[in-house]
Amino acid sequence: MNPLFKNILPYAFSGGLLLLSGCAGQLDVKPVNTIDAGAAVATSGDVEALLVGAYDALGDADVYGGNLLRDADLLGDDGEIFFDGTFVAPDEIFRKSLLVNNSQAEVTWLDSYRAINIVNNVLANLDVVTDANRDRVEGEAKFIRGTLYFELVRMYAKAWTDGTPSANPGVPLVLAPTTEITEEAKVSRNTVAEVYAQVVTDLTDAETKLPATNGFFATKGAAAAMLSRVYLMQQKYPEAANAATRVIESGRYALVSTDEVFDLRVNQNGTNTAEDIFAIQVTSQDGVNSANTFYGAAEYGGRGDILIEDAHLALYEEGDNRAELFYQAENGGIYTAKWINQYGNVKILRLAEMYLTRAEANFRNNSSIGAAPATDLNLIRTRAGLAPIPVASLTLPAILKERHLELAFEGHLIHDIKRTKGSVGALAFDSPKLVYPVPRREIDANGNLTQNAGY
């Protein structure tokens, strides 16, 4: 339910009880415990405050605060990490044995739609935003909504590469504020193709309306970067390369040294680097980094639930400085240092991904949009302390391996497996076990929703 309305029904009920003993004159008393929606978003400042709430919801632990990234890696793992925790929900994800009532699948769905509803309220009240700020506010809101629908359709529906997107059920598209639960509000699932179309529309609008710089909020570059990710999932390689090129050639971002990419400090408020395109902001006072909770050892504020196995460590070439982004904890386990700082920002989009996306897209498309594939790939290899790969020796597996190592433990694994039609152990990319269930509570409450195969 819309946060602006969440207190109305309890007070309406209690008020009804009072009528049984109250006098008629009291019927004209205005409630003091609630606020009218129109009054709540009466000014430009009100709408912008609501937008900040949408960012807060986006950064929730079960969305971009870390768990969504964690689960994409757990679901796609094939022996490179080990989940040693006691929490049932992520353990089911790691073992590819999700039950229909998996609590993580439930809260990620709920929190994502809560954030979307806040965004829809922002978009419904753009008329009160000042002319100077309206485009930016609309762009930020659509960036958040497009991003969330992209994540939802990737986790709760078949991949774009699995069957027919125009026929496969995706997730419900809700594009207007929900203020109460009515029969009309009980929506059905749109198709995968329809959801992707809305994602592209939102992110394209966002890129058009957002400024190049915007503090730590969404920017033109963030929208283009997310678009490149979307197009790569859809195997639209020229579009993916062009979107990545817009980010790279904007001049707003730069690769930094390997030891600067991730915040290797301990218990320090998060900071962005020149490589960061978009990140969830975390401090000791606000925000959450649940990636640290699960990937970080106990002495660094985490639970130490996800250990790195030798199978992953063996993938790094001799001299690869990314192999130094691991540490042995007091319990003897090996952990990634990417999430060692419990107050470090959660990095969602960074420049290295854009170079890797463009390299792969150009290689598959036999093109050189922005740069030749080997040029982009070797920028990342050189930063890692490795020798360049000669143009004549470049292969698609080499590009995909570089992507796997560079973006390890950042929430890309299951999605890369699905779009490349790979496998997770004995499970093919299109296995129903690699798709989240629609939460049981949603199915029970809304007869228009259908469940995914296998649940």
TrEMBL record:
<keyword id="KW-0732">Signal</keyword>
<keyword id="KW-0472">Membrane</keyword>
<dbReference type="InterPro" id="IPR033985">
    <property type="entry name" value="SusD-like_N"/>
</dbReference>
<keyword id="KW-0998">Cell outer membrane</keyword>
<dbReference type="Pfam" id="PF14322">
    <property type="entry name" value="SusD-like_3"/>
</dbReference>
<dbReference type="Pfam" id="PF07980">
    <property type="entry name" value="SusD_RagB"/>
</dbReference>
<dbReference type="InterPro" id="IPR011990">
    <property type="entry name" value="TPR-like_helical_dom_sf"/>
</dbReference>
<feature type="domain" description="RagB/SusD">
    <location>
        <begin position="342"/>
        <end position="421"/>
    </location>
</feature>
<dbReference type="GO" id="GO:0009279">
    <property type="term" value="C:cell outer membrane"/>
</dbReference>
<protein>
    <submittedName>
        <fullName>RagB/SusD family nutrient uptake outer membrane protein</fullName>
    </submittedName>
</protein>
<feature type="domain" description="SusD-like N-terminal">
    <location>
        <begin position="102"/>
        <end position="232"/>
    </location>
</feature>
<dbReference type="InterPro" id="IPR012944">
    <property type="entry name" value="SusD_RagB_dom"/>
</dbReference>
<comment type="similarity">
    <text>Belongs to the SusD family.</text>
</comment>
